[in-house]
Amino acid sequence: MIRLVQLELQKLLLNRTSKILIFISFILPFTVLILSSIKINVFGFFTLELGELGIFNFPIIWHITTFFASYFKFFFAIVVVSMIGNEYSNKTLKQNLIDGLSKKEFILSKFYTIVFFSLAATLLIGLATFLIGLYYSSYTEANIIFREVDFLLAYFLKLVGFFSLCLFFGMLLKRSAFALAFLVILYLLEWIIVGIITWQFNYNIAEKIHNFFPLQSMYKLIDQPIQRMVMTKFPDKADLAYDYALHFHEIVIVLGWTALFIFLSYRLLKKRDL
Fold first, then answer.
1. Is the peptide bond between 214 and the residue preceding it cis, with omega within 30 degrees of 0?
2. Which residues cross the membrane (predicted)?
3. Which of 47, 105, 176, 211 is the most buried (most CB within 10 A)?
4. Where do the domains of the chain lie?
């Protein structure tokens, strides 16, 4: 596994564009550190400091940082689809196979790299969240600090699942731009199907089915924290209550899609005439 990851890292680090995108994908999530220190002057009447609003308290901070950091995954998604596009355009795929790398090892090298970068991103955002929480949170008890650390697991699985989808589209289309365009098409297609099901039946049925779709199932790992942030300031608003927790069945669905995308990528490569 280490050998395969090293092989991919050599390819990526020799490409200037990939190095820049990887750097951006790791640095941008740390903008949450900047947000935590922002002070907003409201028409000269008072100063609003985000860090003093309680949104960086434990345990809610795990939810907030992982949710917003997950939106920066699109930068590394470009790297993932470029990994495949460059293999075809530079003829390195055929050369790797000639040099003794099996098709299974080729796909695994991509997947292991995805897991490696996802794990690195998770550790970094976990460290940033922990440090911000220690500075701003009014809760210092260990059971409160680590109560919702499972959002880090959700973040990791979300990255691995999404990048595996990008890998599959990259293998299917061989071109980075087309693969990224298909992500948009898939997103629109999911919502079109939801609209049709809602029209034929009702939204509750459509929502349950929607949660099994690839992109939506990944999104459901970390539900939006906006309502929860409002609830911390207005606890009497019972109508704002919702289920934001990470559930086992949500993990299983995303793991299922991830395994399917990797398997389909391998089948495409195995059957394709290079």
1. no
2. 20-40, 60-84, 111-132, 152-173, 180-201, 251-269
3. 176
4. 2-271
Is it the case that residue 46 has pLDDT exceeding 50?
A: no
Q: How confident is the model at residue 39 (pLDDT cuts 50, 70, 90)?
A: low
- Cα distances (Å, whole numbers) of residue 145 to 110, 126, 151, 253: 35, 12, 13, 28
Strand locations in the chain (E): 39-42, 46-49
Distance between CA atoms of residues 71 and 49, nearest Å: 23
Here the tokens at position 263 are: 């398997």
> If you compute the radius of gyration of the chain from its CA atoms, what whole number of angstroms results?
21
What amino acid is encoded at 53 in this protein? L
- Integer Cα distance of 144 and 163 in angstroms: 32
Instruction: Say if residue 151's pLDDT is above 90.
Output: yes
Q: Give me 155's structure tokens.
A: 């973040």
| pLDDT tens digits for range 64-95 | 889 988 888 888 888 888 888 777 777 777 77
Q: What is the DSSP letter of 174?
A: S
Per the prediction, the chain carries an average pLDDT of 84
